[in-house]
Design brief:
6 helices, Butyryl-CoA Dehydrogenase, subunit A, domain 3, mainly alpha, three-stranded antiparallel beta sheet
Length: 187
């Protein structure tokens, strides 16, 4: 009787489904307006991109860069990184497990910073109420963006970094054929 091999990695279905849902929600999050402002009777609705452009054109480059990083760059990089890790679970490379585990920890840490925009819109909507002079109201795009953030956080939490280490004990086992043939059969 041969010693039992390490079990195959669990099916990464839940993190994959959550990541795909987050990717799909990126479309309405970036196309729908996230907030409307009313300044002295002039109403303006902005998407994430148009808000970044407006900040840039108004000379607020630092804030535009922060919003771009938190709203566009981090969610996209997080989804791409999670996809890369899911591929590494499905087709494990022979080396780099420690690096991918560290990469997972970084993804887990930075993903929370995408909520910065949601808190900013909530803060603005709650504090900027100057009667007829100015008001800020959240729009449907912020709901879609919140869904992106929540789905990517859930996808990252559903991913088990131990899956990256399943074959670490015998890396040749992945490609070597079983000398005994299929389980339960004798040659």
């Amino acid at each position: 009787m041969t010693p039992s091999a390490a079990p195959p990695p669990p099916a990464p279905g839940p993190p994959l489904a959550l990541a795909l849902a987050g990717t799909i929600m990126m479309v309405p999050a970036n196309l729908l307006p996230v907030l409307s402002t009313n300044l002295t009777g002039q109403t303006r609705s902005d998407t994430i991109i148009s808000g970044i452009v407006a900040l840039w054109e108004d000379g607020m480059w630092g804030i535009a860069a922060i919003v771009f990083t938190a709203s566009i760059l981090i969610p996209v990089l997080k989804l791409l990184g999670l996809g890369w890790l899911l591929l590494a679970v499905r087709w494990p490379p022979r080396d780099g497990r420690r690096r991918r585990t560290l990469f997972y920890a970084v993804l887990d840490f930075i993903g929370r910073w995408s909520m910065l925009d949601v808190f900013l819109v909530a803060f603005l909507a709650g504090t900027v109420k100057f009667g007829a002079l100015a008001s800020v109201e959240p729009r449907t795009g912020i709901v879609a963006f919140t869904a992106v953030v929540v789905l990517t956080v859930l996808a990252t939490n559903a991913f088990d970094p131990r899956w990256l280490w399943v074959e670490a004990s015998n890396p040749d086992e992945r490609t070597a054929p079983d000398p005994d043939g299929p389980a339960g059969q004798t040659p």
